[in-house]
Amino acid sequence: MGYVKSLVFVAVVAASYMYYRNLTAPLPLPPLNQLEQYWGPGDAKNYKEDTAIKPFKINYSNDTIHKLRTKLNDVPNLAKPLEGVAFQYGFNSNRLQEIITYWKTNYLAKWDEREKFLNQFPHFKTQIQGLDIHFIHVKPKVPAGTKILPILLLHGWPGSVREFYDIIPMLTTKSEDKNYVFEVIVPSLPGYGWSQGASKQGMSTSKIALIMKKLMNRIGHEQFYVQGGDWGSLIGNQIGTFFQDNVKGIHLNMCGLQSTSAMLKTFIASFMPSVFIEKEYVDFYFPALPKLKEIIIESGYMHLQATKPDTIGAALVGNPIGLAAYILEKFSTWTNPTYRQLADGGLEKYFTLDSLLDNIMIYYLTDTITTSQRIYYETFSVQEMGLQFDRIQTKVPAACAKFKYELAQTVDWALRDHFTNLVQSNHFQDGGHFAAMQLPAVIYKDLVQFVNKVENQK
User: Fold this and answer.
1) Catalytic residue among 230, 358, 390, 446
2) Any idea of the CA torsion for 62, 64, 65, 70, to the nearest 10 degrees?
3) List 376, 377, 405, 444, catalytic entry
4) How far apart are CA 441 and CA 456, in angstroms?
5) pLDDT at residue 179 above 50?
6) Mean predicted confidence (pLDDT) in 145-153
7) What are the CA-CA distances from residue 458 to residues 222, 453, 454 (Å)?
8) For 263-292, what is each residue's pLDDT tens digit?
9) Catalytic: 433?
10) Contact by Cβ (8 Å): 201, 151
11) Is 19 marked active-site?
12) pTM to 2 decimals?
């Protein structure tokens, strides 16, 4: 009888192992033609792509700005915060009133100056798969013979190209820490800012990855670096997965994997964190339950946008006050969760009101809040999640910049299942979700450190 029990035990262990292997084994790269689709309105048969790259300028009429000011003057009867409450219930209405006052009296009074600021870099549009795609393209002004490396910078939600304005000059200027300069391309993701949103269902991150790769090819770059955060991190990851011969390196400041293997390894590491993580950085990942609680607190918006993006979009489009509260709340608590305890939300600890309102203006003036949110519905769909792209290994050199207050972190042990050439993984004791905008010099230094390693390997 004991012999039989032993056999049963061995069979169960073997079956469990085979089941685990089946769930976690690397997957092959799928046929990339499945990413090809016409995203514009109407029938694709009537579409002929215009491959021209056309200059674009941000330019809004005085009437448009006047209408915005009128809306800001018509403030609804906002509910007063509960006594002793700062941002724990969401955006504090007293602070919101202060921002509205600044917006309509100071910011809009100098809109010409802000518009000029936003236009300081060359802007362009081109048509890809039925959509007009907007992008900033900054070529460095350097002596002949200077090594130039193209780089694609990708934003996420609720950000925009505005996140990269401070880092662009650092990348395109010669300096002692690098023997090259970058040629910088910063697109608005489809449905964001001045990039057209899809008219068809299914515009997930994997589909955007193909559009971004085609954009770089259109500009003239067959090989390039990628840097991204938030959705830009996921899209950059997928560009580096699908087009491994075209990507020289991937630098991400929100490294995460949606795979069974990553979840299992994170679970195992939670019991013996010091075995897998340097002691001084254990609190980036664990204890697990408080981290999970924080994610639940901050992910209500995600469930809404992944299920009913058009409903919340209808409430926010053309509504500057609601839009500001909805977006700026993320710039508070996603920068540091302790800012919920501050009456001003800590917004001006790292950001200026002008920079924050620049980002709000992009969403407001382009009426893209709804189309920007649909990426959640498409990417978290059963069909898209079932493709399990994170189980496809990539040999492209990768780097992860891990900031203390990022929404979620993944241990390197798990990341290496996917990023088989994880060249660099650095931890920073400050910084949050919008790192490129919050700490541009830190992101710049980490990116250059990574690129130096990749370039010196050749």
Assistant:
1) 230
2) 120
3) 376
4) 22
5) yes
6) 97
7) 18, 9, 7
8) 899 999 999 999 999 999 999 999 999 999
9) yes
10) no
11) no
12) 0.95
